[in-house]
Structure prediction request, 327 residues.
Amino acid sequence: PSHPLARESGLLLADIDHRHGRLDLAATRLERLLVEAHEAPWRFRASLDLGMVRLAQGDVERAERHLTVARETPDSAVFLAALNGLGDVRMFVGDLEGAERWYHNVQVLSQEDGLERTDQAMTPAEAYATYQVGRIQLLRGQPEAAATTFDRTRRLARPPLADDASLSLALAYIHRREEARASAVLETIRRTQPGAPPASRAAYYLALLALAEGRGDEARRFCEEAIAGAPHSGEGVEAALLLAELEAAHGQLAQAADSLRAQFGQPGLPIHLRGKLAKRLGEFAQRSGDYAQAIQWYERTAQAAPALRGEMAYRLAVEETPFIQQI
Prediction:
C-alpha cells in the first residue's frame, strides 16, 4: 500500500468512481489513502480529490476543510486546483462574490509571468477559473461580459472545458437575443461532434430557440435528444424540466411529474441537479394542491442545493398555512 504506484492507482480508482457517480466509494478510497499516505504529496492530492467528492455529495463543511488542507501543498497545480475548488464551494452555497475572489486569485497567480495570454492556451486551472467567472457574470445579468469571457475561454482552453465554454457562449447570445449567433455556435458543435455528448447538450439550447419561435414540436424533439444523449449533464436536466413544463402546459401535470421523478431517481446524478428537479417537483405538487408532498420536495431542494435554501424557506412558510388547514 505504501508503494507510489499503489497511491497513484488509489487516486485513479477514486477519480473513476467520482466520474461515474459512485461518490461513497470514492470517498472511502480517499479516506483510506489519507490514513495510509504519510508523505505530503499524496496527502495533499488525496485531500484535494476528497474535497471535490464531498462537495459533489453536498457536504460543504467537509469539502472546505479538505480543500483548505490541499492549499498548503508546494505543488502549484494542486494548489491552484484547491483554490478553484474553494471557489466552487462558494458557488455551491450561492456566494458569488466569495467565489469570484477565489477564481480571480487563480487567474492572477496563473499570469504571474506577466505574459498576456492572447494567442496561447490557458493552463487548466486558469481556464476553469475564467470559465467560472463567465458563469458568475451570466448569473449577475451581464451577458455581454459573459459572452466575451466564454469566447476567450473556448479559444484558449482545451476540451472538454472548451466545449462547456462554447455552449455557455451560445446561452449568453440567447440572453442577448442574438439568436442567429447562438444558433451558429450550436450548429458548429453538432456538425463537428455528431453523436457526442456536446452535440446532445447543444440540443437543449436549440430547443430554447425553437420554442421562442413557436416551434413546439421541434423543441420537444430537441429536449428528448438532450435527455437521451446527456442525461447527467446540466443541459440534460434542464431539457427534462423544459419538457415537463411543456407537458404541464397541455394539462399533463401528472405525466410531467412522473417524468421528473424518474429523472430524479437516476443513479450518479449530481446533487445540485437533483436540487433543481426537486424544486420543480415541489412546484408541481403545489399546483396540484398536494401541500404535504410539496413541502417534502422543497425540503429536499434545500438539502441538495444550499444556494436555493432561502427561496425554499420562503416557499415552506407560504405553504404552511394551507397544509395545516388541509390536515
Notes: The chain is about 80% helix and 0% strand. The radius of gyration is 21 Å. The CA atoms of residues 51 and 67 lie 5 Å apart.
